[in-house]
Amino acid sequence: MGSLIVGVEFQHILRLLNTNVSGKDKIMYALTSIKGIGRRYSNMVCKKAEVDMNKRAGECSAEELERLMTIVANPRAYKIPDYFLNRQKDHKTGRFAQVRHQ
Hints:
Elements: E1 13-16, E2 19-22, H1 27-31, H2 39-48, H3 62-73
Antiparallel strand pairs: 1-2
């Protein structure tokens, strides 16, 4: 296992959507530790937020994390296709939504 060079602003554990996220993982894979977010969806969210996917989660700034969480909270406003969402056409309401851990 290689060593990880830690900068001054590196966070080892991030708290996103009431989930502890490891700062050592790349941001795309770190988002998958949140229940309801898979690899394809996290890839799409990182691209929409214009966050470098080679960056570790602990290296991300507060602004980048805020952009990511805004897109996760409201994916249809950022033109993420309906087939990416995990709750398609709810039987009661008829709405499309991304169900995730609160």
